[in-house]
Design a protein that fits this description.
The protein is α/β, with parallel strands linked by helices. The chain contains 30 helices and ten strands. Helices cover 65% and strands 8% of the residues. Helix 5 packs antiparallel against helix 14 (293-317) and helix 9 packs across helix 11.
């Protein structure tokens, strides 16, 4: 009967998860927030629907193991190298500043040094799941603030390792014994290194065995065995189960089968980690929060302000403008899911008092709930900050560089962004002798590029005065090559106000912003998704031997109509009829005869191509000289180009017969 009760509670939780996921996606909020709220409501201190938290927590712990296992799998050293400065320097600075602030506040509240350090650990973690979900939904993962948020989150994910190692050390005594801490850290890292070395040797062999067995069921069971087995080994070393799972995922991330492993683990992780977040919500004592409601709000606001301010400072130190720093600060101002793993471990070893634990849980959920609002209204907050600090982020060197160039810079091109597109455009403009200026908001990128690109300057193009500094009033063309649509809106608005005649070309990843960018004054908007689609269908049409000029006409029509057909708008009837006529009509095409081709060495009569395919050879080009209407006795040689005429289907058949792989069919 006891088992039936557990099953009843599990079914209730699963039903709540089924309701939460679509509901919170509809309101554009990560389901993780809904899981925390749902757990809070059904827990013992609220509605009391679920009473046996321990049984649910055991299942949830399995979800945590799989969560860290998949994070390890998705952790790419190649990805890290691309943003290593942001991850190592910026992430280290951000985490270090917040940890220090948390520790100082803990000491001010008369906590022991160990508990104060632990508080610093807890508030330094942000929610990768929430931040990445919100940035992905807004198509801002490739924007400057998106990349920085990702880099800082990656560093925080890595910091979970030493923090988990330090929890048993911090719990040993009221006073920190730094000699003992160093020894245990050394022993812990030594154990981890040994485990990684052994795993690097054994895991590939296990994976190869599972693959060679050619059994899907065995492969799935083997992956679960690896993740749980490594987690168990780290627990024997006195470390956490979750840490072992992370190491297993990290080792397997370089495997050629890593994508398949992720595909297997994700469904288990998503289902069981949902239970984990619900179980966290159930642990909150609603009565305690209600009785200390004022303190609860104060703690929540203090955490948000500390994380926002210090994150912003870290971004500004990296030489990014105020706007980017503000957006990153807003994105990372919440407590993260890893903090829950840390706090549960800390409470289990007596490192945090129960009342402090309850306050932390409640405040964490509050910071998570506010994050979607911060990101949704981030642009208004940025504009407000610019009004308060109008000179922040305005580099004086721009005025120095351009005060003598304003008369020289006329009919020039202003390029915003020095990514791949901006760099390629600058190369072409330089080769053609067209004057140009590049505005880039990443100070480090500017410093690296200065040696080879003297026309690049640091600045935030969303600031109207900086556009004035680079002579936007006299510019002929403005190219916006960045991945931040909100910034793009501001740049277009300021540019058109300062120079109504400037020709604006904008690149966007988001199809939804197309009409808004045109409405603001952009002359051409290049959506990357649609341009990729155009390239794909262009190559498809070539396979059907549609003449190149017809394809180019269709492409030009699509672009001039604002990509209407690709956005689901009906193609004009005349265009549809024209396309159908082209497909049904005859066409010509060329075929290069290779040495291995069935046509090599044969006469036109022996080839009998017209009878077999319906296509006719109307000319042969040999040594750059055409032979028109070749006789049936004409013998074909390698290197000849056959000029064919026929319908699309006939020419397809001819190509099939002439290609080397069709030798056995002739």
């Amino acid at each position: 009967m006891h088992n039936v009760n557990i099953l009843n509670e599990l079914v209730i939780i699963l039903a709540i998860i089924i309701v939460i996921i679509p509901l919170f996606r509809k309101i554009n909020t990560p389901p993780l927030v809904g899981f925390l709220i749902g757990g809070l409501l059904i827990g013992p201190s609220a509605l009391g629907i679920i009473k046996n938290i321990e049984a649910i927590s055991i299942i949830a712990e399995v979800g945590v193991i799989l969560l860290l296992f998949t994070i390890g799998l998705e952790f790419s050293l190649t990805r890290l190298k691309k943003i290593k400065r942001i991850v190592i320097l910026g992430g280290g600075l951000q985490v270090g500043l917040i940890m220090l602030a948390g520790t100082v506040i803990g000491l001010f509240l008369r906590l022991s040094i160990n508990e104060a350090i632990f508080v610093g650990f807890l508030i330094s973690m942000s929610s990768t799941a929430i931040v990445m979900k919100l940035l992905t939904d807004r198509d801002e993962t490739n924007s400057p603030h998106g990349k920085i948020s990702l880099g800082f989150s990656l560093f925080q994910d890595l910091m979970i390792v030493p923090m988990m190692l330090l929890i048993p050390v911090l719990s040993n005594s009221a006073d920190a014994d730094f000699g003992k801490i160093f020894f245990r850290l050394f022993a812990g890292f030594g154990g981890i290194i040994a485990l990684v070395v052994v795993s690097l040797y054994l895991m590939p062999k296990i994976i190869d065995f599972l693959v060679m067995a050619k059994s899907r069921e065995l492969f799935v069971i083997g992956i679960v065995f690896i993740s749980f087995g490594t987690a168990l080994l780290t627990s024997y070393l006195g470390l956490s189960l979750a840490l072992g799972a992370f190491i297993a995922g990290l080792v397997l991330s370089e495997s050629e089968y890593s994508h398949e492993i992720v595909a297997i683990a994700l469904p288990f992780r998503d289902a069981l980690s949902s239970l984990f977040f619900i179980s966290i919500g159930m642990l909150v004592d609603v009565k305690f929060i209600y009785e200390n409601i004022l303190l609860f709000f104060v703690v929540s606001i203090v955490i948000i302000l500390i994380k926002y301010s210090l994150t912003k400072i870290a971004v500004l130190i990296l030489s990014f403008p105020l706007r980017t720093a503000t957006l990153v600060g807003l994105s990372l101002s919440q407590i993260g899911e890893f903090s829950f793993i840390l706090v549960i471990t800390g409470v289990s070893v007596g490192l945090m008092k129960q009342e402090n634990y309850q306050m932390f849980l409640g405040a964490s959920i509050m910071t998570m709930l506010l994050t979607p609002l911060f990101i949704e209204y981030s642009q208004y907050i940025v504009n407000f900050m610019h009004k308060i600090f109008p000179v922040m982020g305005k580099p004086e060197e721009i005025e120095v560089e351009f005060k003598n160039l304003r008369t020289d810079l006329k009919n020039h091109v202003v390029v915003v962004g020095y990514g791949l597109n901006g760099k390629n455009l600058a190369t072409v403009l330089r080769e053609t002798g067209i004057k140009y200026i590049i505005l880039e908001s990443d100070g480090e990128t500017v410093r690296r590029a200065r040696a080879s690109e003297p026309n690049i300057v640091f600045g935030d193009a969303t600031r109207g005065e900086l556009l004035v500094s680079v002579g936007i009033e006299y510019a002929k063309v403005l190219v916006i090559a960045i991945s931040d649509d909100n910034a793009m809106f501001n740049i277009i608005k300021f540019a058109k106000k300062l120079n109504p005649d400037v020709y604006i070309i904008a690149r966007t990843r988001s199809v939804q912003e197309l009409e808004d960018l045109y409405r603001l004054g952009a002359n051409e908007v290049i959506p990357e998704e649609f341009e990729t689609s155009i390239e794909i269908f262009t190559r498809v049409l070539r396979q059907y031997h549609i003449p190149r000029n017809v394809i180019l006409t269709q492409v030009d029509l699509i672009r001039r109509s604002g990509y209407g057909i690709l956005r689901g708008l009906k193609l004009p009837d005349a265009t549809t009829e024209q396309l159908e006529t082209i497909l049904s009509a005859g066409t010509t095409d060329n075929f290069l005869v290779l040495k291995e081709s069935p046509a090599s060495g044969k006469s036109i009569a022996e080839l009998n191509l017209r009878y077999l395919s319906g296509a006719t050879i109307i000319a042969v080009v040999r040594d750059d000289k055409p032979v028109t209407n070749p006789p049936s006795s004409f013998r074909i040689k390698p290197g000849d180009v056959l000029v064919l005429i026929g319908t699309h289907a006939q020419i397809d058949k001819a190509f099939e017969l002439l290609s080397p792989h069709s030798l056995n069919g002739l």
